[in-house]
Amino acid sequence: MALIVCTWWWGSKYGAAHLARLHNGVRRHLPGPHRFVVFQPEPADDALKPGCLCRLRMFSPAWQERRNIAKGDRLVCLDLDSIVTGSLAPLFDRAEDFVILHGANAANPCPFNGSVMMLRAGAHPEVWDSFTLDAARAAPYYEFPDDQAWLWHKLPTAAGWQCGVATGIYAFKKPGWPQHSDDLPNDARLVVFPGKRDPSQFAHLPWVREHWR
Q: Are 71 and 13 a contacting pair, CB within 8 Å?
């Protein structure tokens, strides 16, 4: 079964440089067979862009089929502003049908963070089939309905990568990141930037210059 690494891109916040840097990082640190894909929302999904709700389309078997994603393929979704800093292969060698980052949120009580997700194609079609904007607004969320809140609502016991030393996935300046430090942890494999932070704001840091290129 194929390994597909994807990211989602829309709007003007991120440019082609972000895409290139993420792609380069994946290529450097994921040597095995895989393909890197950039997805964009369908025209019908314009209303789903806030909160990354459009990414829930990945759970639709029909959407997967249209994009040549076969049942059983591993579909990894990384935020566009992620920085790959070490080997990714151990992170994605998992058998669960769905895995999502755990423990990266500070104020938000949702235990899930959508910066990193992996779905076994064909699994959990109910995530998309039962989704509507009204249903997302009725489910618990923090500041606004988003994909991680909906996933917590539908798959509350989903497997996870625990943010921090347990996995080498770190959320910059969030729980699990070394306190009072800008330095990259020695065991870091992937750094994500939940919220309003962006790697471009920290281009002066040596580790960002080294890995975000």
A: no
